[in-house]
Amino acid sequence: MTNFPAIAPTKRSYTAPQFPTKRFDSISGARVTRLYGSKSFGAQLQLEFNQDDEGTRQFLDCYEAARGDFGTLNLPAQIFDGMTTELKASIPDQLSWRFAGTPQVESLFPNRSRIRITLAGTLDV
Question: Is residue 26 domain-resident?
Answer without folding.
Answer: no
